[in-house]
Amino acid sequence: MASPPRASRPAEAAWRVWAALLAVGVLWGSAFPLIRVNASALGPVGVTFARVALGALVLTLLVTAAGALRRGTTWRAIGTQLPALLLLAALNVAIPLTLVAAAIVGLNASVAAVLNATTPMATLVVAAVWLREPVRTRQMVGVLAGLAGVAVVVGGAPLDLNTSTLFAVGASLAAALSYAFGGVYTRRRFPDTSPTTLALGQQLCATVLLLPLAVITPPPGPVTAAVAAPLLVLGVGSMAVAYLLYFWILRTAGPVVASTVTLLVPLVGSAIGVGWLGEPLSLGLVAGLVIVLSSVALITHPGPRDFG
């Protein structure tokens, strides 16, 4: 009797990639409302240091269990590239995560998640200036559409446009710019570095960079169980597990598929912010979200080269 047909290996591999992509989108998107829950108790620096340090600890344990650290290869790679990893940690972790946490104090988590989706636009500009990469017409349209989307979100969301709100918006956009520099710097400086070395190295270096700031800025409120529980999700989920999955997607399916996570993060962050935190779902937020996501699609999936 013939056995039933089994799913092909390409189909199975594709299913795993998309499952991992969804997991990363949920983990990174849920970080915005979780940070909002913790930011008032721990402060922007405190919540950032706690999640980064916890993520570094979990990554160290995972990599040790995999055997790479016992053989010393990862430690040697981190040691030989320490100055560059410190700069990467500042651009890709310490600076943007602290700015996001500071922004969420003055913004809804859903608005912050949408503003963070401008990272591909900033990356396009930074890569064009720094790496002299060509910009296609469709991508230029995407950048302009993204700027319009930001204006719609800020102007149409239920926000009091005071100094505090404008600072929070500026911090969100500055975080996106820092991510952009971090991404371009990674491509330029670490083309042959393993994902394990990058993930663990930047987490450990970011922990070291944030430690002095965490010491001089103690938490404004008590650290209770209600504060600690979201930190576990932030540290273990969005910092350790999500980065390992993301680098696996990048290696397995390539940068185009991996960039799709940028479309998922604001959707998840907005949905949780509205559904869990009770944030208002305004027409301006929805319209701005659609415009920003459309611009991200134009930038990350530029289509044929002869478009422009």
Automatic annotation (TrEMBL):
InterPro entries: AA-Vitamin_Transporters, EamA_dom, EmrE-like. It is a multi-pass membrane protein. It holds the Pfam family EamA. The chain crosses the membrane at residues 49-70, 82-105, 111-131, 140-159, 165-185, 197-217, 223-249, 256-277, 283-300. It comes from the Bacteria. Keywords: Membrane, Transmembrane, Transmembrane helix. Residues 20-154, 169-300 form the EamA domain. This is Threonine/homoserine efflux transporter RhtA. GO terms for cellular component: membrane. It is found in: Membrane. Belongs to the EamA transporter family.
